[in-house]
């Protein structure tokens, strides 16, 4: 039978092109996602500034809340307590241990400052001059004796270059005393480099070091994560993106490959009937179909691996440029992504071949001839079972989204529901296609008259073939519409929740930080009613009853103490922010009511760098569900961030006052400070959502392109298989133009049915999601997105039908077809 399969492929190559193309593109996409997943898991960062020590010790970047099962990630650098350094040095096998202070120190050529004693961790070597003393600095380039001004904590500070050292660029080294004064938290090193004596049991030393406290001991390539802590924070996001998109891409690929292979087998029912009529056994038919599938699939998998390599690297580069992945991480794509992509493609092809072979092998020859002529049979109990299971899953997720989830969390159930609805509709495609066709047939027939009646009768008689053409259109419209409008709705809802209480008229921003002295100067500007530092971070509420916050952490906003005319973006319901100093907090009213922690009570929090503090509640405020934050003093939040900087300052003008010129003049006197309007603050607040939206747009775009390949493959294949029908129509008196008009009407119906079903699938996801996120069941977003998706579906459908039909109609109707 394999010899027969080879001959079949030779003479019916066009029938398997759709499957071949689907496998190539599917393998590439799944392989690319596998590469992103492997890159996130490995997170290989080659150490540079910390390349010399055997081990690099950092603080543990997670916190396990009392009573919680999962640890909360800590976004800020935790650091290592200074008092641990003597104990580390006394550990058996350790020859030296050096603590590293790291702080922001900005010049045109530098971004970070360190203590000079940590220079040996690179190691740096003096190429000129001498080690720095008080008031001096060593940099990678410059002249000894030259004055150099750094922006440290928002303040300009001038140092004298005492020497230059060769090593990684962008770092400046100050005397140990100056570094201790400049760093915001001198009680913690950013990391500690440990050198171990040659021949020492490294595993034994590692175990001893880990027992000293909540430390992470990194060796080898993992030392780079200590040097670039942002790479670790991006790790989870990259894994989540690769996992979710890879799962969707894998399921889509398996469905598309299965549908194209099943369609190819469906078009050959007459051939299988002939084989059965001359004595071929069901087992031989099954082996032939399975052999054909493997002969098509295996070369396609090999070919798909090549673009998969470049696609994975391209996606990682794009994610790095948009802040989703760390650009210092090395892209990794080993044999596991290859196996995942190839395995998913082969599994889809083999599964589809077995399903198609089961039907073709069991059918009787006479029944097969009838089935081939009209292709009426589609129903099976297996298909019904899995179709109802998928629809039931979609309904369950819809109910959970509408009743349990709130705010941004609604996306975790609304997103998977799209796939459930789409798969359920696709498995029961002929039923849904007939139902929607009954709705569209009358207006289309009224507008197209004779051609419409002929097209509708054709489609009604060929309901299974119609469903095969409609399903890819439904997938493209449903999945893309749901995912894109979920992002636009969530970004809009987050902006609305933030701006509803935003009372600032202007914002001062600086990447180098804003000093407390500048804040006093802003407050003294005529017309300024209020000014406050503004700092954002994440923390964890250490209370089992800490609703509405969970293991993902609690967003923390730092502002200064202020009165009723202040700039804090909150609507107070009890208490006041005038006492927001020291260890105090303002909490959402929902949290206070559920935990009994109102004004005057105490809460325990772990801040972003792992520091646990006990806070007194001085106020409660109203907050949209799902967008709650905790308000703390700005100085407290800034002191427990990685760089310790205040990068934004909110300013509110007195009624009728124009403070922008005065603020611009004040900003011009401070290097790096800029004046922006409140839109800059809103953009910062939704920055993560905008990045997530961009990622979703890019990945959904790839899925749309892949489903577009399926649309083209299916419709071209279906149209070419109808050449005998077109010839018969022309022999009975129809002209080429009349046949094309009939096909145009059919394409219109296919487009309308596909868009209708895709829209229904998208709405089943979007309506509950939007009602929980924004309070309105109508999704938010520009209408052109939906129009563009519908237009693209129409162009693909018409082009994939009319172009091959036009080519087929160029031949004489009496000319025999080599594939019929």
Account of the protein in words:
- This protein has 820 residues and is α+β, with helices and mostly antiparallel strands.
- It is 55% helix and 16% strand.
- The chain is built from 24 helices and 25 strands.
- A hairpin with a 5-residue loop joins strand 21 and strand 22.
- The longest helix has 40 residues, at 282-321.
- The mean pLDDT is 82.
Index terms:
single chain, 820 residues, alpha+beta, 10-stranded mixed sheet, 7-stranded mixed sheet, 24 helices, elongated, transmembrane
Give the helix/strand layout.
Blueprint: H1 2-11, H2 13-42, E1 55-59, E2 62-63, E3 72-73, E4 80-81, H3 85-89, E5 94-100, E6 102-104, E7 112-115, E8 125-129, E9 136-139, E10 147-152, E11 155-166, E12 171-174, H4 176-182, E13 188-189, E14 191-196, H5 202-210, E15 215-219, H6 223-227, H7 229-266, H8 269-277, H9 282-321, H10 335-362, H11 365-374, H12 381-403, H13 411-427, H14 429-461, H15 463-499, E16 506-509, H16 516-523, E17 528-541, E18 554-559, E19 571-575, E20 584-588, H17 589-595, E21 602-606, E22 612-622, E23 630-633, H18 634-639, E24 648-653, H19 660-668, E25 674-676, H20 678-685, H21 687-720, H22 723-731, H23 736-773, H24 783-809
Parallel strand pairs: 7-12, 9-11, 18-23, 20-22
Antiparallel strand pairs: 1-14, 1-15, 2-3, 4-13, 5-14, 6-7, 8-11, 9-12, 10-11, 16-24, 16-25, 17-18, 17-21, 17-24, 19-22, 21-22
């Amino acid at each position: 039978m394999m010899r027969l399969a080879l001959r079949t492929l030779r003479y019916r190559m066009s029938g398997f092109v759709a499957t071949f193309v689907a496998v190539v593109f599917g393998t590439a996409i799944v392989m690319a996602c596998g590469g992103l997943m492997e890159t996130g898991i490995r997170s290989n960062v080659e150490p540079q500034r910390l390349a010399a020590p055997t081990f690099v010790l950092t603080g543990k970047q997670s916190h396990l809340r009392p009573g919680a099962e999962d640890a909360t990630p800590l976004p800020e650098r935790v650091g290592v307590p200074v008092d641990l350094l003597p104990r580390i040095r006394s550990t058996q096998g350790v020859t030296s241990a050096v603590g590293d202070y790291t702080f922001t120190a900005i010049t045109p050529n530098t971004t970070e400052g360190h203590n000079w004693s940590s220079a040996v961790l690179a190691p740096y070597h003096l190429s000129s001059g001498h080690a720095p003393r008080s008031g001096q600095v060593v940099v990678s380039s410059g002249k000894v004796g030259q004055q150099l001004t750094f922006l440290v904590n928002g303040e300009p500070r001038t140092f004298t270059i005492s020497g230059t050292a060769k090593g990684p660029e962008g770092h400046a080294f100050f005397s140990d005393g100056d570094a201790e004064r400049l760093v915001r938290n001198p009680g913690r090193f950013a990391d500690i480099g440990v050198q171990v004596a040659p021949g020492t049991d490294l595993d034994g030393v590692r175990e001893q070091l880990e027992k000293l406290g909540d430390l992470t001991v990194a060796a080898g390539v993992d030392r780079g994560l200590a040097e670039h802590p942002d790479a670790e924070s991006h790790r989870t996001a990259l894994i989540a993106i690769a996992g979710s998109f890879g799962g969707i891409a894998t399921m889509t690929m398996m469905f598309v490959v299965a549908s194209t292979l099943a369609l190819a087998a469906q078009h050959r029912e007459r051939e299988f009937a002939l084989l059965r009529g001359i004595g071929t056994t069901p087992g031989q038919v099954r082996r032939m179909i399975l052999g054909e599938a493997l002969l098509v699939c295996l070369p396609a998998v090999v070919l798909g691996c090549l673009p998969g390599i470049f696609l994975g690297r391209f996606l990682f580069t794009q994610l790095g440029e948009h802040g989703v992945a760390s650009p210092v991480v090395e892209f990794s794509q080993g044999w596991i992504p290859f196996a995942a992509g190839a395995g998913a493609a082969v599994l889809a092809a083999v599964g589809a071949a077995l399903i198609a072979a089961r039907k073709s092998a069991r059918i009787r020859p006479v029944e097969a001839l009838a089935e081939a002529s009209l292709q009426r049979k589609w129903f099976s109990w297996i298909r019904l079972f899995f179709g109802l299971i998928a629809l039931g899953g979609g309904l369950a997720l819809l109910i959970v989204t509408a009743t349990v989830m709130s705010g941004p969390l609604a996306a975790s159930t609304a997103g998977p529901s799209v796939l459930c609805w789409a798969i359920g509709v696709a498995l029961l495609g002929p039923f849904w296609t007939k139902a929607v066709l009954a709705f569209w047939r009358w207006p289309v027939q009224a507008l197209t008259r004779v051609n419409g009646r002929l097209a509708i009768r054709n489609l009604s008689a060929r309901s299974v073939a119609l469903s095969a053409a409609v399903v890819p259109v439904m997938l493209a419209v449903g999945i893309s519409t749901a995912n894109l409008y979920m992002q636009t709705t969530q970004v809009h809802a987050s902006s609305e929740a933030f701006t509803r209480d935003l009372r600032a008229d202007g914002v001062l921003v600086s990447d180098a930080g804003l000093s407390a002295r500048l804040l006093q100067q802003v407050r003294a500007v005529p017309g300024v009613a209020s000014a406050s530092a503004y700092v954002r971070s994440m923390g964890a509420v250490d209370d089992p009853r800490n609703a509405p916050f969970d293991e993902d952490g609690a967003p923390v906003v730092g502002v200064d103490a202020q009165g009723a005319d202040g700039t804090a973006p909150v609507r107070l319901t009890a208490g006041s922010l005038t006492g927001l100093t020291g260890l105090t907090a303002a909490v959402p009213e929902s949290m206070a009511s559920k935990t009994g922690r109102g004004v005057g009570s105490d809460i325990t929090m772990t801040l972003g760098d792992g520091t646990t503090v006990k806070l007194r509640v001085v106020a409660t405020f109203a907050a949209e569900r799902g967008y709650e934050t905790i308000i703390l003093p700005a100085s407290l939040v800034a002191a427990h961030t990685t760089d310790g900087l205040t990068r934004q300052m909110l300013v509110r003008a007195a009624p009728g006052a124009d403070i922008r010129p005065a603020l611009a003049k004040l900003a011009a006197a401070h290097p790096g400070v800029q004046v922006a309007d409140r839109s800059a603050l809103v953009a910062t607040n939704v920055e993560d959502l905008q990045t997530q939206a961009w990622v979703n747009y890019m990945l959904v775009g790839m899925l749309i392109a892949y489903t577009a390949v399926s649309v083209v493959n299916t419709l071209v294949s279906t149209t070419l298989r109808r050449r005998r029908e077109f010839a018969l129509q022309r022999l009975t008196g129809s002209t080429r133009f009349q046949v094309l008009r009939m096909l145009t009407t059919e394409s219109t119906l296919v487009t309308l049915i596909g868009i209708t079903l895709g829209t229904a699938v998208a709405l089943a996801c979007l309506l509950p999601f939007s009602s929980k996120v924004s309070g309105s069941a109508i999704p938010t977003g520009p209408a052109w997105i939906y129009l563009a998706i519908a237009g693209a579906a129409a162009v693909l459908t018409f082009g994939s039908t009319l172009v091959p039909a036009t080519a087929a109609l160029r031949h004489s109707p009496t000319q025999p077809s080599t594939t019929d």
